[in-house]
Amino acid sequence: MTAATIARLVDVHAAAIRGMSDDALAHEVARDAALPPSPLADAVRRADEAEMLRRAPYATQVRAALVALGTTRDEITATLTTAGVRGRPRTDRGCAVYEYLLSLGLPVLRINPLFALLIDGSRVDVPEVVGDWMAEFDALAFPALVRAVA
C-alpha cells in the first residue's frame, strides 16, 4: 500500500470519527488499538489520538502541546523553529513558547518557566525541560527565535 493510499484512507477515517459521539469514538479507539502493527494501523491510531486530543478539555490540550515541544532543549528549539514562531525574551506574554501555543489556537494569559495561566483562570504546570528552555531563552541563548522589537 502506498503512502498516498494510506493518507487517503486516514483522511476518510478522520472525517468519519469527527462526526462520532464521544462514546462511539471511545469504542472506535479501542477497536483500532487492537489492530496489528502496520503503517495503516499506526496512521489510524494517530488520527484517533488527534481526535481525542481535539475533544479534550482546554487544560489537557495546553499540557499536551507543552509536552509535545520535546524532551530536550534541541528538540524544543527544533519544534519552535519548524513552527516558525519567534518571541520576546523576558516576557510572560510573548515568549516563543507563548507564541507557539497561540499558533496552535491555544491562547494563554501568560506563561513562565513554572506554569501557564489559562484563559479560564486555571493553571497548567510547564514541563521542567520546557521551563529550563524558557529560562535559557530569557538569557538570549536562542537568538534565531527572538522576534525583533518594532
Describe it.
- Helix content is 57%, strand content 7%.
- With 150 residues, it is mainly α.
- It has a 3-stranded antiparallel sheet with strand order 1-2-3, with helices on one face.
Helix content: 55-70%
What is the residue-mean pLDDT, rounded to a whole number? 87
> What is the strand tally?
3
The computed structural class is mainly alpha
Number of helices: 7
> What is the distance, rounded to the nearest whole angstrom, between the alpha carbons of the first and last residues?
51 Å
Low-confidence stretches: none
Biggest sheet strand line-up: 1-2-3
Strand content: 5-15%
SSE layout and pairing:
Elements: H1 3-18, H2 22-33, H3 39-55, H4 58-68, H5 73-83, H6 96-103, E1 108-111, E2 115-118, E3 123-125, H7 128-138
Antiparallel strand pairs: 1-2, 2-3
